[in-house]
Design brief:
By secondary structure, the chain is an alpha/beta fold. It contains 11 helices and 8 strands. It has an 8-stranded parallel barrel with strand order 1-2-3-4-5-6-7-8, surrounded by 8 helices. The mean pLDDT is 97. It binds 1-deoxy-D-xylulose-5-phosphate and the ligand NCC(=O)COP(=O)(O)O. Ligand LD2JLWAY is lined by residues 6, 40, 150, 196-199, 217-221.
């Protein structure tokens, strides 16, 4: 199981002063040295953290896989086709949201999304979609040609912390089961099962134990811990927890 480290919030800190530090490229290198298998960045339409120049420099200077999260717009697909990340993940975006609030509604926009995925595939980019753990969205993901589904783990994470980190609480068991069932459906349709959003050092292991999960994308929690222990150590600790959960 791989870890994609989302470094958006290194850029958030830089943008707090609109300066040049901390540099997301340095963060990507530190994450790589800590054991990250990939780097994830979300180029938001409002450019609130990661900027176009970061994407270009990360593509040029880092040696691990790049996963570019982006709104499913023609403009963003153009950027992805120029930069050529290994993977592009289509996410819903709201200007007023603090972070991504839910999965992509593929059913509501199937024809346009199919076209975006086809353009990415023509450029040699694997398409991923960020979706809620809902069977109809998974089936729609397969129809539009997505090769990967990242299941939104926010509801599970919220339930986990609302229950005082009690993994046996009924709401937690139910949310975890929804992610597991979604993972089975994704795999049954021949797609790659990834998961992410609001995962942290306390809630990651039940997700990392799910059958067939291939990548976890984790950002805010790792960058938060890095403030105190350094990014290399923060990434290494997350990898250790994931390996322990997977029994390796
Ligand atoms: C799609 C997802 O769950 C997160 O990667 C999120 O989109 C990151 O964006 P922010 O860093 O702006 O919250
Ligand atoms: N796609 C999820 C991601 O990249 C990281 O989300 P978060 O850990 O910052 O909530």
């Amino acid at each position: 199981m791989e870890l994609g480290v989302n470094i958006d919030h290194v850029a958030t800190l830089r943008q707090a002063r609109r300066t040049w530090e901390p540099d997301p490229v340095w963060a990507a290198v530190e994450a790589h040295l800590g054991g990250a298998d990939g780097i994830t960045i979300h180029l938001r339409e409002d450019r609130r953290h990661i900027h176009d120049e970061d994407v270009r420099r990360l593509r040029e200077l880092t040696q691990v896989k790049l996963n570019l999260e982006m709104a499913a717009t023609a403009e963003m697909v153009d950027i992805a086709c120029r930069v050529k990340p290994e993977m592009a993940m289509l996410v819903p975006e709201g200007r007023l949201e603090v972070t991504t609030e839910g999965g992509l509604d593929i059913l509501a926009n199937e024809a346009a999304l199919k076209d975006r995925v086809a353009r990415l595939a023509d450029a040699g980019i694997v398409s991923s979609v960020f979706i809620d753990a809902e069977p109809a969205q998974i089936e729609a993901a397969e129809r539009i040609g997505a090769r990967v589904c990242e299941v939104h783990t926010g509801p599970y994470a919220h339930a986990f912390h609302a229950a005082g980190r009690d993994v046996d609480a009924p709401a937690v068991v139910a949310e975890l089961r929804r992610v597991a069932v979604a993972g089975e459906a994704i795999r049954a349709l021949g797609m790659r099962f990834n998961a992410g959003h609001a995962l942290n050092y306390y809630n990651v292991q039940p997700i990392a134990r799910l059958a067939g999960v291939r990548e976890l994308h984790i950002g805010h929690s790792i960058v938060s811990r890095a403030v105190f222990v350094g990014l290399r150590a923060a990434v290494a600790e997350m990898k250790r927890l994931m390996r322990e959960a997977a029994g390796r």
